Amino acid sequence: MDDRVLWRIAQSCHKLEYLNIVFRTKINEYSICGIIYSSPKFQHLDITFCEITDITIKEIASSCLNLKYLDLKGCESISKETVDQLVLLNSNNHIEIFGI
């Protein structure tokens, strides 16, 4: 899977609730943010070892209000402060966050 495939999914599947793109190093952060923005019903995101930064976490915080599970193992460019803000912004939901 690469950016083109992910963009096609984002454009045609606006009701996605589950996404697992573990170890997808050919997918850039811009594409990941695009699919997150296009599918606000996400409940489960596994982006283990994807090369993302705080930008993606901020997009998740503002777009994924139903999020219950987030796996960030191996995402070394994310600050703990940004993840803490994600939890605060989604305080109505219990979010299981792994990897940070």
Low-confidence stretches: none
Secondary structure class reads alpha/beta
The beta-strand count equals 4
Terminal CA distance reads 25 Å
Output the helix-strand order: HEHEHEHE
Adjacency order of strands in the biggest sheet: 1-2-3-4
Instruction: Describe the sheet with the most strands.
Output: 4 strands, parallel
Number of helices: 4
Portion in strands:
5-15%
Shape: globular
| Mean pLDDT, all residues | 84
| Helix percentage | 40-55%
Radius of gyration: 12 Å
Protein name: 18876_t:CDS:1
Pfam families: LRR_6 (PF13516)
InterPro entries: Leu-rich_rpt, Leu-rich_rpt_Cys-con_subtyp, LRR_dom_sf
What's the layout of helices and strands?
Elements: H1 3-12, E1 18-20, H2 29-38, E2 44-46, H3 54-63, E3 69-71, H4 80-89, E4 96-98
Parallel strand pairs: 1-2, 2-3, 3-4
Helix pairs in contact: 1-2, 2-3, 3-4
Question: Could you explain the architecture of this structure?
Answer:
This protein has 100 residues and is α/β, with parallel strands linked by helices. It is built from four helices and four strands; from the N terminus they run H-E-H-E-H-E-H-E. The chain has helices at 3-12, 29-38, 54-63, 80-89; strands spanning 18-20, 44-46, 69-71, 96-98. Strands 1-2-3-4 form a four-stranded parallel beta sheet, with no helix packed on it. Helix 2 links the parallel strand 1 (18-20) and strand 2. Helix 1 (3-12) runs parallel beside helix 2 (29-38) and helix 3 packs parallel to helix 4 (80-89). The longest helix has 10 residues, at 3-12. 25% of the residues are buried. The mean pLDDT is 84.
